[in-house]
Each structure stands twice: as C-alpha cells, then as structure tokens.
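Q: I have 95 residues here and want to know how they pack in 3D. Can you give me a structure?
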Amino acid sequence: MRFVSASGESHEPRPLPWCGADGRPAHVVADPARPGPVSRRADLVEDIQLEMADILLGHARQLVGEAGPEELRYLVVELTRSLTDVLRIALRVKS
C-alpha cells in the first residue's frame, strides 16, 4: 500500500519496531529524505535492538557449552525475540 502526500509524492508505510496499543503492528508514513520525530525514534530503537542482538549473541556463545536446561531455555526465548527484531529491520531495509 502506498500513500500519496499533498505534494503528490508517493510513500510506503514504514513498519515501526513496536506495536500499537492494540498489539498490532504499527507503521508511519514519512518522507525518507526528511524523517520526522517518529522515524528518528524508530531508527534509535532499531539501533538499540541491533546492539542488544549483538550482545545477546556474545552471551549465547559463552553459555552454549556450559548452561543447564533452564538457562538454555531462557537463552532460546531471548534469541528468538532478538532474531524477530533483527529480521523485521532487515526486511524493512531490504524493501
């Protein structure tokens, strides 16, 4: 779905790295050349998510050989959450 601004420019909605109040995916329509406050905030959140994924991956590498079942279960949950964030960012950047 594309949106056309008053100036006639066409823009794709950008998925945001958070959900709306109803739990559904949130989007913003903005000019990529002139990002507004919501787009800049989304960029910051995505940067943090990517940094956290990198840190989590480092912890996973350390724990994988020595962690017990509970620690590994927790690690899988967190890695799954992080991978979901990273894939959403990658798909947005790719399109």
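Q: Anything worth noting?
A: The beta strands are 3-4, 10-11, 13-19, 25-29. The radius of gyration is 17 Å.
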